[in-house]
Amino acid sequence: MPKSLALVNSVYHLLTVVNLQHLAPPGEETDLLVSDITPGLQDLIPRLGETGLFARVLPVGSKDLGERFPMNQEGPVARCLEEGEAHLRWALGEELEGEYRRVLFPNFDWLARLLACRYSCPFYWVEDGFSSYVIDFARPDRAAVNRHSLGAKLGERTEAALLYEPRLAMRGDGRKNLPLPKLSRQDGALRELLNFVFAYHPPQDLPPFLFLEQSFRAENIRGNDLELMAQCQQAVGLGRFGVKSHPRNGDHLPQALGLSRKVDLSVPWELFLLNQETPRPTVLTVCSNGALSGRLCLGLEDDTVMLYKLYTGKVLWKENQVLSRYLEAFRRQFAGRNYYVPETVFELRNVLKVLGGQYGG
Questions:
Q1: Cβ contacts of 229 within 8 Å, gap of 6 or more
Q2: What pTM value is reported for the model?
Q3: pLDDT tens digit sequence for 54-113
Q4: What is the three-class DSSP state of 159?
Q5: What order do you get walking across the sheet with 339-340 strand by strand?
């Protein structure tokens, strides 16, 4: 039987693909491509290889393609696709199989598109957080690459999206949505496998209230997230509140502004949840996928406070209205299960006081 090919660009993708291969029937082999999109991800390749889970684990240099060939400009798009096989060989640096049974990919990026020009097997789009539920990345009017006959092949070959909660999908692209198996806290072998890959050590002294920052500053999205952090800190107390910085912001600004004590949490959030028994921190965020992933991919129901109704910026430029509908559907599905979406700062402060045990405060 031909092997599968899986591409990962982030820790979230890697956790999902490791779980899929871990659960695969004996004899179903997969080659794994680990891209250079996320800093440090390729450092995990030696340990991934040692597990023996994958037939081969290969680095792939795809970040440069996105920087050199903007997908919304027709000229660069045409050049990249015309020279596609040469770019693919350069990015891979090592030969792949002549054919694969299927290809698993997380993003409609250049590498996935060039692979779709080479291979005619079915492609499966693996969840990449809430964007996989709300954005039709193959829509012709979204980017010039989708209007090029070769650039459109990825959309044409994609059989389905693999999602942790398929019923929440609202992309409107007509594509099938199939369920992903959740990461199971009862699966000791999976936990041992992932702990080895990431050299997991439990974080020490986490605050009882943890704000998951998003990459708004890195993306030049203006909003009031820092002000919301201040409101949360005031409600629960200085020593009981911390911010998990987003690596793409690179500035640890909340800590510099006195909004957070030092938080040592470098391990993947989902891996922390897979390992950590209760009590776990109450999670606060505008709408970080990390706050949703505990419910999406692990089925947990920890205290979670979503602040998107109080946020003044736009999280997604083109799909902000669809994202709002998705978050509302998510709220309805998990309402009353330790999931809070305050609509005013007054309501936020009361929710945090209740969660912090300051009843009637």
A1: 211, 243, 254, 259, 260
A2: 0.91
A3: 999 999 999 999 999 999 999 999 999 999 999 999 999 888 999 999 999 999 999 999
A4: strand
A5: 241-244, 209-212, 282-285, 304-306, 339-340
